[in-house]
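Q: For a teaching handout, I want to show students what a protein-ligand complex looks like in token form. Below are the inputs, and the small molecule is adenosine-5'-diphosphate. Please produce the holo structure.
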Amino acid sequence: MASIITVSGLTKTYASGFQALKGVDLEIEEGEIFALLGPNGAGKTTMISIICGNMRASGGSVTVAGHDIVKSYRASRSAIGLVPQELHTDAFERVIDTVRFSRGLFGKPRNDAYVEKVLRDLSLWDKRNNKMLELSGGMKRRVMIAKALSHEPRVLFLDEPTAGVDVELRRDMWKLIGELRATGVTIILTTHYIEEAEEMADRVGVIDKGELILVEEKATLMKKLGRKTLTVSLGEPLHALPAELGEWNLSLNGDGCEIEYVFDTQASRTGVSSLLRRLGDLGIGYKDLNTQQSSLEDIFVSLVHQEKAA
Ligand SMILES: Nc1ncnc2c1ncn2[C@@H]1O[C@H](COP(=O)(O)OP(=O)(O)O)[C@@H](O)[C@H]1O
Ligand SMILES: [Mg+2]
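A: Here is the structure, written as tokens, with adenosine-5'-diphosphate included.
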């Protein structure tokens, strides 16, 4: 598939001397959903700001739809829609006006049919005459997307589209992004939630401390990252792990009140049900079970170790 964005040797050193991007190379394919996954401070917003022309790079180059972002700023920028991390809107403006206005900023002629389609796609058509202050948080987010799509961009950037929103709204947003991709727009989203990358992306790039550690098909990456920790809260504390539990890689924590088991969610046998059966056979009662995805932090540590070992 053809690349729609090419990033080569991109660096950014802020005036403070802090190096936020350390030579990033990346190709985005037309029509894909690409998730840029990384912890806070990794350089995600910096990278997006440069690609969108809101900030200058210190070195390297970027082309969007074949246009160099510096030499052909207007052409490259008009191929991009950006939903920034911080939402800002005029509280008293009507939905349809703010979307039309955004389109006008790109010098596009008024096109009521297109604006209607965007508002309908985002389930905002019924709210088109409402003022922004009358909308819920989820609707405001959708208006930001409508504004970003107003000038018919080929690429849509969503910078942390669900940071700080509740679970329900996050699911709505994921569904919406999935539907947008069906319109043919290429989508690049940044996130620090593994679940979000897992749910949405065709490909994932992991960024940490200004370096793109890896770029991979989602399925391949999830295989590498698919580790979970099962915590079994025991009814009665154990002094030591019985030898009969030796075939699982367990640790005894919390003064003997918790057994922890780290397992691979992608394995054909995770070992979870056999472990629980064995606990039953041994008469070890438990009062609660809890599983937790390995945190991004853990994963970075293991990825970075793999890189060094390789
Ligand atoms: N204007 C700035 N001046 C100096 N440092 C900055 C500036 N903006 C961001 N940074 C630093 O650059 C790093 C990357 O920031 P950012 O791109 O916002 O990360 P992310 O979006 O991944 O959370 C952070 O350590 C941040 O503190
Ligand atoms: Mg950011």
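A: Two things your students might notice: Residues 223 and 268 are 12 Å apart (CA to CA). The chain has two domains: 3-222, 227-293.
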